Amino acid sequence: MSAHIANGRLVVWITLFIGMMFQIMPLPEIAAAWRPDWLLMVMIYWGMALPHRYSILTAWVLGVLLDVMLGATLGVRGLAFALVIYAVELHFQRLRNFPRWQQTLVIAIFICIYHLIVYWTEFVVVGDSAFSTDMFLPAISSMLIWWWVFWMLRNIRHRYKVR
User: Fold this and answer.
1) Cβ density class 85-107: b for 16+ within 10 Å, e for less
2) Taking burial as the number of CB atoms within 10 A of a residue's CB, which of 110, 145, 147, 156 is the most buried?
3) Which of 121, 136, 133, 142 is nearest to 63 (CA)?
4) Rounded Cα–Cα distance for residues 13 and 9 (Å)
5) Subcellular location, in the record's words (predicted)?
6) Is 139 in contact with 111 (CB distance < 8 Å)?
7) Which long-range CB contacts under 8 A does 91-99 form with residues at least 24 apart?
8) Rounded Cα distance, 26 and 141, in Å
């Protein structure tokens, strides 16, 4: 067994890859506005669970990669992911100890902040971004599935002894 599998790095990168695939997966137009922020939720989980290993640089790289895959303005999601993960890592010990319902509300707030940063950055850089409250729909859907995402990733972390 290689060192990467033994300490779980490969497992974490597989979960991040799956989060990226869910993030770019095509959805019907009616459901696209409600798409949960899969990659951000996975990054938030690993940022809370292993802040010393998966942090701001990981978030920035994955955000830039997501920008490339979406054909969006380069660096916008990288900046937004990095800022959100920075906030998560500032308070990771507190977040870990919150009850799940309270953690869910904080995750929804982080996702709203992420969308506001993306909107603001695109507005400043590109200038043609229009504000819509629909940008907060992913926060609602992400909030509804956070317990399941947390439970899945926690079980994966314990099963493969990710440290």
Assistant:
1) bebbbeebeebeeeeeeebbebb
2) 110
3) 121
4) 6
5) Cell inner membrane; Cell membrane
6) yes
7) 92/47, 92/48, 92/51, 95/48, 96/48
8) 16
Rounded-to-integer distance, Cα 117 and Cα 134, Å: 15
Residue whose entry in the numeric block shows the structure tokens 């060192």: 3
Output the pLDDT for position 3: 53
Domain 3-159 has CATH 1.10.1760: yes
> What pLDDT score was predicted for residue 130?
78
CB atoms under 10 Å from CB of 163, counted, come to: 11
Contact call for residues 48 and 88 (beta carbons, < 8 A): yes
* Residue 2 vs residues 5, 12, 16: alpha-carbon distances, Å: 6, 15, 20
Query: CB–CB of 31/25 below 8 Å?
Result: no
Tens digit of each residue's pLDDT (9 = 90 or more) over 40-80: 999 999 999 999 999 899 999 999 999 999 999 999 999 99
What are residue 35's phi and psi, to 5 degrees?
Answer: -55, 120
Tokens coding 82: 């990095």
Q: How many CB atoms within 10 Å of residue 7?
A: 15
**Percent above pLDDT 90 for the chain:** 84
Contacts of 98 (CB under 8 A, 6+ apart): 106
